[in-house]
Amino acid sequence: MTLATHPDPFLLDATAADVQGDARRLAARGPLVEAVLSDVGLRVWATGNRAVAEHILGDRDAFVKDPKHWADLTEGKVPGNWGIAEFITMPGMLNADGAEHRKLRQLVSGAFTARRVEDLRPRIDEIVRELIADLAQAAPHGFIELRRRFAFELPMQIICELFGLDPGSGEALTRNYTAMHASSSTVEEATAGKQGVVAIIAALIKEKRRSPADDLTSALIAATDGEDATLDDGLLLYTLMLFLFAGQSTTQDLIVNCLKALADHPSQLARVRAGAVPIEDVVEEVLRWQSPINTIMFRYAARDVVVPGTNVIVKKGEAVVICVAATGRDEQSFGPDAHAFDPGRGVLARHLSFGWGVHVCMGAPLARMMTATAVGAIVEAFDLDRSGAPEPAPISSFSPNSFVELWMGLTARTTASAVA
Q1: pTM (2 decimals)?
Q2: How many whole angstroms separate alpha carbon 201 and alpha carbon 217?
């Protein structure tokens, strides 16, 4: 089977209008199917089968990240103005393979240590308390939009502190980052926002070279200074941009998805409040059931390969899309109730929301910590009510899987209701 001969490829919808409906339809097609990207018409392979996806992500010899292996890209078939093109061709750790990837990852992991993450816990607690107090002041006045007012703020403030940004620069980064991603932004506003983000991070690198401190930026500079520097200013910029996009956006989307899941499943929320289900298990179940990641784009075949469990030959130079949101509801892995939200289920950590293999997300522990702290605090402080609120629209993207807004009514919980 080759891409050229399939008469009816599966449509991968760039608008993400029905992610889970597409997941069911993809599963019905088979474990690895020919697909077409709806916005650019490029042919790829796609899988929503967790076992097949795990194999592809884990086979470092047959499936690689470096886009120079993608035939459509090297042959000029990928539009230069395609929004994803910049991300999939970004220099640095994200799209490196082999020895280059190992070297970059070791350098970054030496700066982004478990101690540095754990040291952020008191500040995470403090920010969450401040945000909860702010919501308590606004709660009596009707519905509150929690994506921007709550889910955005925590990871954004933590990223700024992690980078070592002063308050003024942090506020500027927040403004520009918001302009980049706001659905209301024009193309010109989004472009200006991105330019502003790049300028702020470039200035930060310059400042930390002059005056290093106890922050991630300084640690990355210290790890690579000297004649054999691995991260020049350009790669430092891309590395910090990756931390910003992955650390902020993914965590924000995860918090939103957790809050919506609990509000929509009051019986599960009751189990959490009764102590029957830890909030950490809620986070893991949402990572499986409503992953903040829609797809992993891409892996490229470095040679012709028969993918185990599929009888499909992926030709050298072809791209594979991992449909992460679909893999989390794979019935072969999670059983016939895979489409049910159940944080009390036995197997929670086999999802692929943070990747798999050597490219597994380094920021996963921090994202988990922030989400569990934020979601745990808000469900302890408030009763959640979405009845009468606008139904949230999905984010139109191949990458994030969440909602543009999340409106919710919040009622402060009394001591009696908290005990009950």
Answers
A1: 0.93
A2: 9
